[in-house]
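FORM 7B - TANDEM STRUCTURE REPORT

SECTION 1: FIRST PROTEIN
SEQUENCE AND TOKENS:
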Amino acid sequence: MNAGRLRALGLAFAIASALFFGGSGPFAKPLLVAGLGSLQVTWLRLAGAALLMSPLLLRYRSAVRTSPVAVAGYGMFAVAGVQACYFGAIATIPVGVALLIEFLGPVLVLVWARFVLRRPVTPMAVMGVVLAVTGLAFVVRVWAGVALHPVGLLLGLGAAACQAAYFLLSESTASVRPSALAAYGLLIGALVMTVPARPWRMDWSVLTSRVELAGHELPAAFAVVWIVLVSTVFAYLTGIVAVRGLSAPIAGGVAYLEPVVATVLAWWLLHETLLPVQLFGGVLVLLGAFLAQWGAPPRPVDSLGTATETTLSSGRG
């Protein structure tokens, strides 16, 4: 396959990955409304996806022996931490707002690098931080006394912090294949979430009930299958294929379609709307986060393309 066709294929799969990831919140929220806790929905997603990706666990079992810290960090932060905080956030604030806050991860990385690690940052990155913080002020409407549920806001920031934590640890994943990182990350994430989620105390009858989506009643099991199969397994696998044909900046840029997709789906399926001023703020947040990521010092990329994968899929909602 020539380089042009490979890039086109990579772009198509990157867009598909963003679409799949963006659908997790809108399909998870009806389960939360039906009575499941956010930690339980997170556990269902991770455990189901880990089970479906178990063949990769056997194929890449050496990853645990060669890079245990990297794999554990991915599972705890980029998988369990981000998704638990994100699902917790959307229980009380709009899906689009929660995902916009989560995408502040690259901004937090630069703030940490500048003020904690005392590393210089580029003017473009500084501009990105300013734009993102300004956009966040519009999204939460600070002049109205922060018109969001405080718990949801904090959990959204927690998702951003977990995303940032993984970006800061990303160099240690250079020796791990992206597919192995995804498979073992999901497994570790599911194991980490088992204790706080306590699935043995979950009301499993909810999964046999019906939930409302886009004004229609659908089986709750359909929503579970969607967030497990489409928004996790398909999302990660298409992301892995995408990074083979794209550079890190392009892959990272396409990933910013995710909040747009989530906001549109939340409007269509959940009837959640954002005010024009919040949409304007959302544009500033995404532009600022993109500039912050683009202006950050480049991470080393190994022959497996692992650094590119961290740009594309770490911390996805």
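SECTION 2: SECOND PROTEIN
SEQUENCE AND TOKENS:
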Amino acid sequence: MKFNTKAIHGGQHHDPSTGSVMPPVYQTTTFAQTSPGQPIGEYEYSRTANPTRAALENALASIENGARGLAFSSGLAATDCVLRGLKAADEVIAMDDLYGGTYRMFSKIYKDSGIKFHFVDMNDMEKFNSLINKNTKLVWVETPTNPMMKLADIAAIAKITKANKIVFAVDNTFATPYLQNPLDLGADIVMHSATKYLAGHSDVIAGALIMKEEELGKQMHFQQFATGATLGPMDSFLVLRGIKTLHLRMQRHCENGEKVAEFLNNHPKVNTVYYPGLPSHPFHEIAKKQMSGFGGMVSFDFVSGKKEDAIGFLEKIKLFTLAESLGGVESLANYPVMMAHASIPEDKRKEIGITDDLVRLSVGIEDIYDLIDDLKQALAV
């Protein structure tokens, strides 16, 4: 099946008991048994498996071309599940530009675990190779990154990780499987904050892992089951509902994102626009190679370099909503320094380019002329 069909039908079946086209919300903790250890069906307890969550997990595996999908209570819970497989003295090489919550988990929560984290520009292959040693167990990449829209060459990194037998995980939240398929490019694990584009309606917190190989999928499922950060049935239903329109929404996100980026790129008050679809973007060629479109995330800063200009813009927007998160049908604006990336130390933020005048936009699916008009009035003197 092509992607548009898989988004609706991939891994899905009508409910066997009623013929329901959409899977019912199995709002239950446990399932009856005929004798100890002999459940009536394949389910015993909802932390281990739940029919509604299973329907979502099958869909996740289908759209990412993986062997096993798992649904979590958040994207960070999914990330944590991957790290649970590591032990003291293991080392992780991670992209230097990461979502603030991921950086916080790596640098704060696991700081006393004995696991060593290296943060590196993943386009500096010489530096990346120099960090690999016998203790390197995981490479973690986010592409495009949040909020600087940096990209990493997934296929090139995969060649190195495979040669060194290192697990390679890619945060595919910004691109979604509609635009980018890391497992097909050589990654072992894909992670999503399913809160964002997969669910798509700003009404659920969820995370996902999809594994290329069944054996790694079994390992991740055990770690999920043993630690318990599973997604509830109602939330699973909502994410599955969102996936069924993912292809339609992403088409409009891409169309609007390109037009917003072009408008900002030609505005006299705007200095740099960070959008992989622009030929001026330093990773435009990588984007063309491994993505089928450029998405709806756009970041920019001001000619003045002043924090006051960024805050003034954010206080004047009307159709764009100043709020955390991204990937919903509505357009959102974010101030990374004080919002999504506030947990990253100031010196680290400056090192990767997150300045005090940086604004991140999640361009929604509204009429593009209304969005441009809102940006015009917010940027006016």
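SECTION 3: OBSERVATIONS ON SECOND PROTEIN
The chain has a mean pLDDT of 96.
The first strand starts at residue 33 and ends at 35.

SECTION 4: SIGNATURE
Preparer initials: ____
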